[in-house]
């Protein structure tokens, strides 16, 4: 039980959890994708951009991402 409590206790630095999270931004609007990348990287996320559906699919199949931000109209 002690282990579970330690795991659930918030870190003193919550951004340390973000440093290990990898995000795929699938967005064909390049300025928007770059803006999202910049802001997410400021929060210590690792970010990869895909500007086409085929590029996003290829990256998603080849790499592990914790989160995918997907433009539904891509």
List keywords for this structure.
single chain; 74 residues; alpha/beta; Rossmann fold; 3-stranded parallel sheet; 46% helix
Describe this structure in words.
The chain has 74 residues and is α/β, with parallel strands linked by helices. The chain has a single domain, classed as Response regulator (Rossmann fold), CATH 3.40.50. The protein is 46% helix and 19% strand. The protein has a 3-stranded parallel β-sheet with strand order 2-1-3. The radius of gyration is 15 Å and the shape is flat.
Break the fold down into its secondary structure elements and pairings:
Elements: H1 2-8, H2 15-18, E1 22-26, H3 30-42, E2 46-50, H4 53-62, E3 67-70
Parallel strand pairs: 1-2, 1-3
């Amino acid at each position: 039980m002690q282990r579970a409590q330690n795991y659930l206790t918030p870190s003193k630095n919550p951004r340390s959890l973000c440093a290990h999270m990898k995000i795929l931004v699938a967005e064909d609007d390049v300025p928007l994708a770059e803006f999202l990348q910049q802001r997410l990287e400021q929060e210590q996320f690792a970010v990869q951009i895909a500007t086409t559906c085929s590029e996003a699919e290829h990256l998603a199949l080849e790499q592990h991402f914790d989160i995918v931000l997907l433009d539904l109209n891509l």
